Hints:
Layout: H1 3-6, H2 12-21, H3 25-81, H4 84-97, E1 101-107, E2 112-117, E3 132-133, E4 148-154, E5 157-168, E6 171-180, H5 184-234, H6 248-287, E7 292-297, E8 302-305, H7 307-313, H8 325-328, H9 331-345, E9 351-358, E10 363-373, E11 380-389, H10 391-428, H11 434-465, E12 473-475, H12 477-495, E13 498-503, E14 510-512, H13 514-530, E15 537-545, E16 552-553, E17 560-561, E18 570-577, H14 584-587, H15 598-601, H16 610-620, E19 626-630, E20 634-642, H17 648-664
Parallel strand pairs: 13-15
Antiparallel strand pairs: 1-2, 1-6, 2-3, 4-5, 5-6, 7-8, 7-11, 9-10, 10-11, 12-14, 15-18, 16-17, 18-20, 19-20
Amino acid sequence: MTAADTGPDPTWQERLGQWWAEFSLQTKLLVVATMVVSLLMTGITFLALNGIQRDAQLSDTRYARDLGLLLSANVTPLVAEGNDRELAAVADRFWRSSRSLRYIFFADPEGIIYLGIPIGGNAGSSELLLRRRLELPADIQKRPDTPLIRQHLSPDGRVTDVFVPMVSDGHYLGVLALGINPNETLLTSAALTREVTVAVFISIWVLVILGAVFNALTVTRPVKELLQGVRSIASGNFETRLSLPVGGELGELLGGFNTMASQLEVYKAANIEELTAAQVKQQTLIATMADGAVLLDADGSIVLVNPTARRLFRWEGRNLEGSELIAALPEPLALDLQAALESLVGGAKDSADVRCRFGEPSRTLRIVLQSVRDASGESLKGIAMTIQDLTREVELNAAQSRFISNVSHELRTPLFNIKSYVETLHDLGDQLTEEEKKEFLGIANDETDRLTRLVNDVLDLSRLESERVWAFEPIELPTAIEQTLRTYRLNADDKGVSLHFDADPQLPRALGNWDLLLQVFDNLVGNALKFTPKGGQLMIRAYPWPDLCPLIPDETNTNPSCALTSPLPRLRVEIADSGCGISEVDQSRIFERFYRVENAVHTEAGTGLGLSIVRGILDKHGSQVRMTSALGIGTVFWFDLPLEDSDADELELLAGRRRYELEANV
């Protein structure tokens, strides 16, 4: 990573601002208060120091003025008399008697120095070796009582200069100049005071700085770290730990924080494990539900969809999590559900029940929406949607209604015929001939037989659709077929139809129910004979299927082998006739209840339940009846039966699978 990627380094002002921004408001106020107090104390200290220095300077000034006035009063008469020798002697004695005097100068009215101690003369000497001019203010001669005082720095230290004008009887005689050293005691006291004040000031600032550093290291930093740790814990990061070398109450507080974080981490892990297990259970339960299930969030977006709902809404292979439900649904369902879903999301309702139809083929769905709220019942957390496929129930109800209607219609016709002919015999018995009476009684008898067959067929269907367990046993199939053929041979001879049965003499025994299979053969042979015209043929064949091959020894192995094998060999039965045949339209509906081909061709009568009974019986045997037909050529029905050594559990599984397929195709 280059410097251009990270940006320019922050300046010291920016770093200082970032460092200052990290402190809390309380810490900032404490620092500002400390700074204000420190600045106030510093100002007071400097004011006091300046006052002490001013007092010392003022004391030196007063001393120098008084000393200059005293000497001027003593020497002015001598200057007026011109007694220079006595003037020098007095000045020398005065200089020697005072240790604070640095020098004594005498200047004439023009400012020329004519006498100086210790610059230009000795005791008893009147020779002046110094000729210098003093630059003094012009008005100094006008204020003899107000000397001119000033200070200057010399290599030996500060010196206070006093210039006193000498005036006698109104005549200006010159100037007396004194150089006075400052008061050592006063200077020492002032210096000591200054040093003590500076030391106190420095001590205060050192204490403030040390206090700030100590506060930052021992209080502010741990509190700041603790605050960041609390925020991290509040955000869900329970792995946060604080490690600072702090003792006392703060150390105990940090230790307690780490202990709390450890316990929260353990609780979090346990809760996550429990929540994960509960979520897995919930998802497994939802996934294995027979009904469709969809979980939505509070905004109506999809959170979870089980496989049943994906199949019903045709969502296979789509990632729907986070998508809006209305946008993902087919348009007809979206229109039916939008108002109900909006009422739940808006809080107007807590539940809704919607029934709708969609798709091709059309399916009927019942969709139940239920809002999911928090413990207080105020906040909406999501919406649970269950989808029940009512297509089967609706179709069963419709089929039941059609069945009842058909049964009522079929029962009404023979009953009406019987009632009509019986009433005619009862009312007009004396007026009818014997032949007419026999004809009416014959018709009533035929209708009674028809009614009996219809009731028996309905009872047979009821028994097949019940949960009754049928017992299967080994059956000699040729015996059952021959018994059926003997029953219909007389009718076949009357119609001129030839009956044939072709079977292998070594045909293995089948596994089935004797009575049920006799009913299958009876219905199929009866139907074939009914629709076969005079001179036709009816053929029944029975043979193993798949075909059994001869066991031939292998060339490389002495064990026998067979090229064609079957995991579950069966016996196939075919009933073929040379009748009028069945059209393709009728073939698609011929196994429906009460559907009769004669309704279209108007040739024969029947209940329309025979082939439905055949299909139900063969379903119990784990088999399926099939057919092929052509108009004017004939029809072939065939089915397979299990062998006697077949697995009964496998047969039951096949029967259940066949029932499920039939129910799914209704």
